[in-house]
Amino acid sequence: MCEDLIRGVTAVILAGGKGNRLGCNKALLKIGDTYLLEILVSNIKAMSDRILLVVSPHDYNHLLSIHSSLFSSNCVSVICDSIPNQGPLLGLIEALKWSDEEWIFLVGCDMPFIEKPLVRLIYQSRKKGSQVLVPQLNNFLEPLHAFYHRSCLKAAETAYKQGKRKIKDFYPFVNVSVFEEKAMRVIKDYQISFFNINSAEDLQRAQKIFTCIQKMSMEEAILIEGTDSNR
């Protein structure tokens, strides 16, 4: 529902990588008959009515031809990296330049099971002066499941000009608020939000997870239908 959206945020999906270990851009992968990107957009749509996809210029036409109906029906804007194959830091910079919202929520296109309650909890943790809100899972920061304030742009551009390509490379120059794992435990199964696909084995696991999610949804629908019919 519209009133339940996370306001003041552009949700940004990075899809500019080559996906070397899987042999293709991950935005072209399917789980069963469903594109990975379709699952992710569906989850993101429940959080934000502003969705931006950042892609490589090499993949732009192909992705647009495959996903045109997905983008149009969900009001997804699509932009290209100004230079291909430069890593996620450039994708963040392009997104910060494009968005006119105060914050962006950045996620990789290989993270289909993003959990809205967790994302909202991370956003609510922001403090005065926060520029980055990044969760920490198993003692590792998760920069592709994080919020970035528009004031990060200058520091990100400086790091990029210095030859840096990883998002965490500009963290020392901005005010980073780390959202610790112990704070996530109020969300059931919060770990699934960070699940990402880097290998054929991960893709198989994703298929099992997606099947379970669909099955649970069907069981809930049957229960609701049964309740309604007894009224």
Would you mind describing this structure in some detail?
There is one protein chain. With 231 residues, this protein is of the alpha/beta class. The protein has a single domain (2-198), classed as Spore Coat Polysaccharide Biosynthesis Protein SpsA, Chain A (Alpha-Beta Complex), CATH 3.90.550.10. The protein is built from 7 helices and 10 strands. Strands 1, 4, 5, 6, 7, 8, 9 and 10 form an 8-stranded mixed sheet that branches. The chain has a two-stranded antiparallel sheet with strand order 2-3. Helix 3 (88-98) packs antiparallel against helix 5. The model has no long low-confidence stretch (mean pLDDT 89).
Largest sheet: 8 strands, mixed
Q: Give the rounded overall mean pLDDT.
A: 89
* Total DSSP helices: 7
CATH architecture: Alpha-Beta Complex
How many domains in all?
1
Order of helices and strands: EEEHEHEHEHEEEHEHH
Structural class: alpha/beta
Strand-helix topology:
Layout: E1 9-15, E2 30-31, E3 34-35, H1 36-45, E4 51-55, H2 60-73, E5 76-80, H3 88-98, E6 103-108, H4 116-124, E7 132-137, E8 140-141, E9 145-149, H5 153-161, E10 176-179, H6 181-184, H7 200-229
Parallel strand pairs: 1-4, 1-6, 4-5, 7-10
Antiparallel strand pairs: 2-3, 6-9, 7-8, 7-9
Helix pairs in contact: 3-5
Q: Can I get a quick summary?
A:
The protein is α/β, with parallel strands linked by helices.
Record keyword descriptors for this entry.
10 strands, 231 residues, 8-stranded mixed beta sheet, Spore Coat Polysaccharide Biosynthesis Protein SpsA, Chain A, two-stranded antiparallel ribbon, 7 helices, 19% strand, alpha/beta
